[in-house]
Design a protein that fits this description.
Chain lengths: ~280, ~325
């Protein structure tokens, strides 16, 4: 909105925008501040805004009382598999759908796209039974496999690759480049922004996935951060200071990544939007 | 992205070359082309089959069976669907999900749309700072922030009730009180998704041609009028898209009610107190993975799918309507 001659409105806008930031950011400040407090100080009413004597013991407790390092490792492993898998599978399928003609292409594409309407909650029971059958329960593979197919990723890749001139690919073909080589050295570099957006979008969604890990993990060997956190808070219900330290540890990696790659993150979310 | 001039000529020569190739060789080329397509498609197709098609069919079969995981399977036709129709808890949890949707979706729209409009204004400074601030909740782990909010909403020690006390307002029991628990969680649902909707609106606003805005301004339209007569109608497709995403997300909400109702100072069962926050997915999870009634849980999940299909089809129907520019 452009408000050239409404000076007071501009001031009001700044005021509202700034005031609005308070509830958006307060939980983070509260979390970090509580993470450095002793339990009595955490429970104190009226609360203190900043710890009187900041302590690090809560963070030590998080890593010693609970295998939190293991949770982080598991989360990173699952995220790496899913992000890599989704981007490469989607890019390959997007290439096939956009630059090849073959019988049944459009029907298959629409069928895959229609699967966006099948919520995970319908598939989770069979997926769990499959996990039991193939001994995937409580494994990193079991945590990852349901997310490797992403209809939206394929759609996104197809849309992007359609904008690449087909002559470019034909020229390379005629020059004798193999299809794999064309895909790796010509196509993928050209769709890098889309790959990055899809990767980030997948990462953000996967990092906080809770329902499936809740079902498929049974021990700390495979628990990811979200379910590990939940276990932690069920075990140490009243140790709020530890919970806040654990929460701080859990949110920090992605927030740092976001602050470093803001543009890509925001593009990733704006481009895709739909969350599974 | 155009190939260099030399390449184009080369390619034109090559095209002539193809025409000269005898018929059999051409067929081979065509076959190879199709085979390569299948090769590129193979991983997606295999995954599509094993992660989507097969489980979907299996779930459908399960929904027609009476099966409690350990017992014997019994085909009961539409028995599970009849049962859920007569199940008060089904209607209750569906109602809670609708309440969530009706509360959370408009709240997010009413906050994020003005936010996007202001952040899109040419005169605004510190734009990226504001955008970052409002966007941060989107990239934070939902379980972790649910902890923090659960603690802030604590009836006795929470900062929110302390603040209400300072203002001299009554202090609700929040998560401990069936009348308030869902609202406390809805606050978190709104807080978490404002940034996502804002970014989608900002992307939509970029597509509005500046000439329309300039023309309206020359005609002396007030900002208010500009918004209602120009910006909003042109933003219609984005608005529809955002509403559909938010509604589908609202139907599928699970983590916030689960985490905020279980654990913490007052440990309770997920969906509590007194099933007041038992959203529909929590209901499905409870039946499936706590009571192990896998057939009945599948039937409930298909109701969720039906709702999502209806919303998606409405979107497709509306988006086909030409938007007048």
């Amino acid at each position: 909105m452009d408000l050239p001659e409404y000076r007071w409105l501009k001031t009001l806008t700044y005021l509202l925008l700034t005031l609005g930031l308070v509830p958006m950011l307060l939980p983070f400040l509260w979390m970090v501040s509580s993470a450095f407090k002793t339990l009595p100080e955490v429970m104190q009413v009226p609360p203190t805004w900043f710890p009187k004597q900041p302590i690090l013991e809560n963070f030590v407790a998080v890593f010693t009382q609970f295998p939190f390092a293991r949770y982080i490792l598991n989360s990173v492993a699952v995220a790496a598999i899913v992000v890599f898998g989704v981007t490469i599978v989607s890019a390959m399928a997007g290439y096939a759908f956009s630059k090849f003609t073959f019988p049944g292409r459009d029907v298959l594409f629409i069928a895959m796209l229609a699967s966006l309407m099948v919520p995970f909650q319908v598939r989770m029971i069979p997926l769990y039974l499959m996990s039991i059958k193939f001994r995937l329960v409580d494994t990193i593979a079991g945590l990852s496999f349901p997310w490797l197919f992403d209809a939206f990723g394929i759609f996104l890749m197809r849309q992007f690759m359609q904008t690449i001139p087909t002559e470019l690919i034909e020229a390379a073909r005629i020059d004798g480049a193999s299809e794999l080589r064309i895909f790796w050295t010509i196509l993928l570099p050209l769709v890098k922004p889309a790959l990055a957006a899809l990767g980030i979008f997948t990462l953000v969604g996967n990092w906080e996935e809770f329902l499936w890990p809740l079902i498929v993990t049974t021990s700390d060997a495979s628990r990811t951060i979200p379910v590990g956190l939940q276990r932690f808070s069920e075990q140490y219900m009243s140790n709020i200071h530890w919970q806040m330290a654990a929460a701080t540890v859990a949110v920090t990696p992605l927030i740092i990544a976001f602050l470093l790659f803001q543009r890509q993150f925001i593009q990733g979310i704006a481009l895709t939007g739909l969350k599974d | 992205m155009r190939p260099a001039g030399a390449k184009v000529t080369q390619q034109a020569e090559a095209r002539r070359g193809i025409r000269a190739i005898p018929r059999r060789a051409l067929l081979t080329y065509r076959t190879r082309h199709v085979l390569w397509a299948f090769a590129f498609l193979a991983p997606a197709f295999v995954l599509f089959f094993f992660i989507v098609v097969y489980p979907l069919g299996w779930a459908l079969a399960l929904s027609l069976q009476d099966w409690s995981f350990f017992g014997a399977k019994r085909f009961i036709g539409l028995g599970n669907y009849v049962r859920l129709w007569n199940d008060p808890l089904f209607w209750k949890s569906l109602g809670i999900s609708f309440k969530w949707t009706i509360g959370v979706v408009p709240a997010i729209l009413m906050i994020s749309l003005p936010l996007a409009l202001f952040l899109n204004a040419g005169w605004l400074r510190l734009k990226s700072l504001y955008r970052t601030g409002y966007f941060v909740p989107v990239v934070t782990n939902i379980v972790a922030v649910a902890f923090v909010w659960r603690w802030m909403f604590d009836p006795d020690f929470g900062v929110i009730n302390w603040f209400l006390g300072v203002l001299g307002l009554p202090k609700p029991g929040w998560l401990a009180d069936p009348a308030w628990a869902l609202y406390a969680m809805m606050v978190v649902g709104v807080w978490k998704q404002i940034g996502q909707a804002m970014v989608l609106f900002l992307a939509g606003l970029q597509t509005i041609p500046q000439e329309f805005v300039d023309a309206a301004k020359i005609d002396g339209a007030s900002p208010w009028k500009l918004f209602w007569k120009i910006t909003l109608p042109l933003l219609n497709p984005t608005l529809l898209f955002v509403v559909v995403i938010l509604v589908i997300n609202a139907f599928r909400v699970f983590t916030i009610p689960y985490v905020m109702s279980a654990g913490g100072l007052q440990a309770r069962t997920p969906g509590g107190p007194l099933d007041s926050t038992r959203v529909f997915v929590l209901h499905i999870y409870d039946i499936g993975f706590r009571q192990f009634q896998l057939g009945y849980a599948s039937a409930n999940a298909f109701v969720l799918m039906a709702l999502i299909i209806v919303v998606t089809l409405i979107q497709i129907k509306l988006i086909q309507r030409p938007f007048e520019y």
